[in-house]
Amino acid sequence: MIEGNKITDSSAYQFFQRRGKHRIYIGMSPGVGKTYRMLQEAKGLLEEGIDVVIGLLETHGREETAEAASGLELIPRQQIKRGNHTLTEMDTEAILKRQPQLVLIDELAHTNVPGSQREKRYQDVEVVLAAGIDVFSTVNIQHLESLNDLVAKITGVVVRERIPDRILDEADEVVVVDVTPETLQERLREGKIYTLDKIERSLQNFFQRHNLVALRELALREIADNLEEIAESTTPKDKYCSIQERVLVCISTHPNSSHLLRRGARLASQMRSRLYVLYVNNPDRFLTKDESLYLEMCEKLSEQIGGEFIRVDSNNITTAIAQTAKKYFITQIVLGQTRRSRWQLLLRSSPVQELLKVLHDVDLHIIATNNNSR
């Protein structure tokens, strides 16, 4: 039942028409100031007359964070009994009954107490958003599912609590809270992140400078990718300009293709760019069994090196490459050396020359053919 602007029946959120907006504050590690920034901006909205409440706050004993929360209404936590212990979790039902305009929910990747209605806090957030309530939440970059293996390789720490990448992709706003590794280490030494007994151990482990540098780069790169995807989907095609490099490797059933793939992957890695792999299939020509198997191997190799495999049917290879380059905003194209004779090139222009005529802002990389590279 809805009275005024408030839902009195907690089940009514299922039928609420407007979905809430989600702003995520993300940083490279604990201590960068995500929660503090969230609280400060929420208090500014409170002063403007927005109905703001705290759904879940983790201060971790940080005085500055606790002070920043003063003046904001706090929804009491749900008490959950487990044997002789009483544990607490965010009270999602209480938030739905309160029906504020904006709720602050800390630590998005948190795993709820076993037996809770939902396993993960981000699932609670999705319920709150479905009820038409706006949400501000916080998360560290290492909690993204797709970065789990990379973070473990960098830091030696396997992050158990993770969120699907789609949560970040679906957010209405993503705010990067960034500080230098030196500033973060100084905060740690001053006792602003962990208690004194944990400082030295943290500096020798997770908070080593090289770890923080790598995590900071991951955070900034992830947001850059996120922003570019938004720009790509919302900007008219004729006005969009790719900020990041994008590499397209053009392969065939020729044995040189696996060599092209590896060269393209190295180029993409050096440029820290997206990688695409294109195969233009002539619909009038049937592939042999060996050719089909080789192409399948190239597709698997593309996936292993982090590339997106694209298959296009066309009788005109040059036109297909040009159209794909424009569709995916390609900035670099990797091609194998043509197998035409000099007489053929004199009588008819090469694919490279044709591409140069239509792709004015794309760099072409011609890789020498090696028949023994299979």
UniProtKB/TrEMBL annotation:
<dbReference type="GO" id="GO:0005886">
    <property type="term" value="C:plasma membrane"/>
</dbReference>
<keyword id="KW-0418">Kinase</keyword>
<dbReference type="Pfam" id="PF02702">
    <property type="entry name" value="KdpD"/>
</dbReference>
<dbReference type="GO" id="GO:0000155">
    <property type="term" value="F:phosphorelay sensor kinase activity"/>
</dbReference>
<dbReference type="Pfam" id="PF00582">
    <property type="entry name" value="Usp"/>
</dbReference>
<keyword id="KW-0902">Two-component regulatory system</keyword>
<feature type="domain" description="Signal transduction histidine kinase osmosensitive K+ channel sensor N-terminal">
    <location>
        <begin position="18"/>
        <end position="226"/>
    </location>
</feature>
<feature type="domain" description="UspA">
    <location>
        <begin position="245"/>
        <end position="355"/>
    </location>
</feature>
<dbReference type="InterPro" id="IPR027417">
    <property type="entry name" value="P-loop_NTPase"/>
</dbReference>
<keyword id="KW-0808">Transferase</keyword>
<dbReference type="InterPro" id="IPR014729">
    <property type="entry name" value="Rossmann-like_a/b/a_fold"/>
</dbReference>
<protein>
    <submittedName>
        <fullName>Osmosensitive K channel His kinase sensor</fullName>
    </submittedName>
</protein>
<dbReference type="InterPro" id="IPR006016">
    <property type="entry name" value="UspA"/>
</dbReference>
<dbReference type="GO" id="GO:0005737">
    <property type="term" value="C:cytoplasm"/>
</dbReference>
<dbReference type="InterPro" id="IPR003852">
    <property type="entry name" value="Sig_transdc_His_kinase_KdpD_N"/>
</dbReference>
<dbReference type="InterPro" id="IPR052023">
    <property type="entry name" value="Histidine_kinase_KdpD"/>
</dbReference>
